[in-house]
From TrEMBL:
Pfam families, A to Z: DUF4368
Domain DUF4368, chain residue ranges per copy: 102-166
UniProt-recorded name of the protein: Uncharacterized protein DUF4368
InterPro entries attached to this UniProt entry: DUF4368
Source organism of this protein record: Fontibacillus phaseoli
Length: 176
């Protein structure tokens, strides 16, 4: 794992200084697309939840009328209204959480300049130290192993500070 991370960082240090503008554009474009897609999905989910909350309001009102008119028992009313109100409270909380996430995503921008300033401080990385890892890397995601033609492969995704994941193939596209 350490060798993989070290090699990825070395590759970044070789390619980015030669192609800073293209790298910045690549990261900004990718980030904008991902953010737009994620935000749109969250907005759709929040709207779906709002519609269900309004639907639950209508159901609770009808349930109340049915209870008052004697169509359903008090016991049944309590049971059903409790269920509807619990679902409504859960959805209301989910909508509030989604709105917070949407606001955070819309105000957060990828900070390529900050990442590039870290890259500029290094010319060569001889060994991987905790300080270097903390400067460059936000997190590392190790995916489940896959079997392909008898080979065991495991995808490792490095999420860099300020820019997210950087695809090795994208770097190759920079002319390196």
């Amino acid at each position: 794992m350490e060798q993989l991370v070290l090699e990825e960082l070395r590759q970044l240090l070789r390619y980015i200084p030669k192609h800073e503008k293209q790298f910045a554009k690549l990261v900004m474009d990718r980030s904008a697309q991902e953010q737009k897609r994620d935000t749109a999905a969250k907005k759709r989910t929040a709207e779906k939840h709002r519609r269900r909350i309004a639907e639950l309001d209508t159901l609770i009102e009808r349930l109340y009328v049915d209870n008052v008119s004697g169509k359903i028992t008090d016991e049944r009313y309590e049971k059903m209204s409790g269920k509807f109100e619990a679902e409504q409270a859960e959805l209301t909380q989910a909508v509030a959480s989604l709105e917070t996430e949407i606001a955070a995503e819309e105000s957060q921008a990828v900070n390529v300049d900050r990442f590039l300033s870290v890259v500029r401080r290094y010319t060569v990385i001889e060994e991987l130290t905790p300080a270097i890892v903390h400067e460059f890397i936000d997190r590392i995601i190790v995916h489940e192993p896959e079997q392909a033609r008898g080979d065991r492969r495991q995808k490792v995704e490095i999420i860099y500070n300020n820019v997210g994941a950087v695809d090795r193939h994208s770097l190759m596209g920079l002319g390196a």
